[in-house]
Amino acid sequence: MQKSLLFPIAFLSGLVMCLLAATGFAGETGAHVKGRADTPTMESSASACAQNADNTFCWMSPDIGQAWASGYTGSGVSITIVDDFRSSDMVDGDLGRGPQRQRHGEWVFEEAGMVAPGANMFRNAYIQEAPIALHDGLNVINLSYSYPEPVSRSPLEQSIVDAARAGNAVVAKSAGNDGIRMGTVNSKGDADYLAVSLFGTPSTIFVGALDHNGTPENKASLASYSNYAGSNPQVQNQFLTVGVEGDKTGLFGTSHGVPVISGYSAILGNKFPSATPTQIANQLLDTARTDTLVNYNAATYGRGEASLSRALAPDWIR
């Protein structure tokens, strides 16, 4: 059983660090095989990521600081990161707290916790095949990896899909890093069955990566590696994009867009504590911006670029 991290590549001071995902078999043997991460070629000089006056960091949208200033930090919401927390594969990066070398899951965990510092954070190593555990209150499940086998073979992935179908958790899922339409087979002959199984589920958001946080004055494009929504209206309706500023952090990939959306979901759940996971997901999708994107079209960008400020604007959501 093979799981693949959706983490294309990280650079620090021009040094290329390719991350290959470790993935485990169910059972007690501890055996594992290597998954394959997508690794497009790109140049970067991950410079020091300065902290801003509002305590946000260089890779964050200004909307995050505005949310914190209004008292919304994700309090009362649980974010579970399902990822690699056990392999020996490490990558260098800097989210603004100084250069570090961490596992893929540790980076994703840190990013989500930085966006929503008030959230209750949980780790779930995907080598463990037990069903996902949900917690009291709003649950957000962060999936920054692919699964190239039918989900019915895994109690963990099947339980996540079941939770998404029932609308029991906001499920934020990486779109993938092959530069192809979601749901199609990549150049290695792999398809992401986890993504396909989540098509049409009411509380799932697929996350594509932009080359930076867009503004009307400085529009963003879909990152060259990012998968796109394609012509399926169902997928377009669930697809959001977010800036992944790897030139500042050394961390590229749709993997690193997902924890931003997970954090946004927690912040919304903080403001709207009675909202359901489906309402939270729909609020982010329905308030996405298109005026910050180069040549916006739904087949590329889905609903558009996530806008936390627009999602938080109303007094209530439905």
CATH topology: Rossmann fold
CATH superfamily: Peptidase S8/S53 domain
CATH first level = Alpha Beta
The domain count comes to 1
What would CATH call the architecture?
3-Layer(aba) Sandwich
Estimated structural class? alpha/beta
Overall pLDDT metric: 88
Number of β-strand runs? 14
What percent of the residues sit in helical stretches (DSSP H or I)? Answer: 25-40%
**Per the principal axes of the C-alpha atoms, what is the gross shape?**
globular
Q: Largest sheet, order of strands side by side?
A: 9-6-10-12-13-14
Rounded radius of gyration (Å): 18 Å
Largest sheet: 6 strands, parallel
The secondary-structure element order is: EEEEEHEEEHEEEHEHEHEHHHHH
pLDDT < 50 stretches: 9-46
How far do the termini sit from each other? 40 Å
Can you walk me through this structure?
The relative contact order is 0.17. 25% of the residues lie in helices and 18% in strands. It has a single domain, classed as 3-Layer(aba) Sandwich (Rossmann fold). About 12% of the residues have low confidence. The strands form five sheets. A six-stranded parallel beta sheet has the order 9-6-10-12-13-14, sandwiched between helices. It is of the alpha/beta class and 318 residues long. Helix 2 runs parallel beside helix 7 and helix 7 crosses helix 8. It is globular and about 45 Å long. It is built from ten helices and 14 strands. It is an enzyme of class 3 (hydrolase). InterPro entries: Peptidase_S8/S53_dom, Peptidase_S8/S53_dom_sf. Its EC number is 3.4.-.-. This is S8/S53 family peptidase. Keywords: Hydrolase, Protease, Serine protease, Signal.
